[in-house]
Design goal:
This protein is an alpha/beta fold. The protein has one domain (26-143): Response regulator (Rossmann fold, 3-Layer(aba) Sandwich). It is built from 5 helices and 5 strands; from the N terminus they run E-H-E-H-E-H-E-H-E-H. It has a 5-stranded parallel sheet, with helices on both faces. Strand 4 (103-108), helix 4 (112-122) and strand 5 (126-129) form a beta-alpha-beta unit. Helix 2 (61-70) packs parallel to helix 3 (88-98). The N and C termini lie far apart (48 Å).
């Protein structure tokens, strides 16, 4: 007799119809986001999640440093300005003093040259203008040989 299929009879499917075993396996990369009131925060988070990154959100610089210390081989993305908290520059400097191999990207509204000079001064991997959003971050990480797109 005919039996109706159940959810347990078929494997899970990805959103585009491919079976999960057909999808390429990627190493999950880890990212700590501390973007404060940045309008693009949700877009940046979703962009990297869709590309297989494990995202951990931090509310302030202290929490971002703690998450980075607890997470091996991660990228930290910080907003340049954080109202009522320490700036992304100070958070970057403190983080890199404790964990020097961490990749740190700072997002801000300054002119590129000034932001790049300040990023180099505090030891950040890159400075990305806020108007570039997630693509700019990924491009900066590509330049540092750390991102798959």
């Amino acid at each position: 007799m005919f039996k109706n299929p159940t959810l347990t009879d078929r494997g899970t499917k990805a959103h585009d119809g491919w079976h999960e075993s057909d999808l390429p396996r990627r190493l999950n990369k880890r990212m700590v986001l501390c973007l404060g009131n940045l309008p693009q925060a949700a877009v940046i988070e979703r962009f990297f999640q869709e590309r297989g990154w494990i995202i951990r959100l931090a509310v302030n610089g202290d929490e971002a440093r703690q998450l980075a210390r607890d997470t091996d081989n991660c990228v930290v993305v910080l907003a340049e300005e954080a109202p009522e908290h320490e700036s992304g520059w100070l958070t970057c400097w403190k983080l890199l003093n404790k964990k020097s191999k961490t990749r740190v990207v700072i997002i801000g509204d300054q002119e590129s040259d000034l932001g790049i000079r300040q990023a180099a001064f505090v030891g950040a991997t890159a400075y990305v203008n806020a108007s570039e959003s997630a693509r700019g971050i990924c491009r900066a990480l590509h330049d540092a040989d750390h991102c798959d797109d």
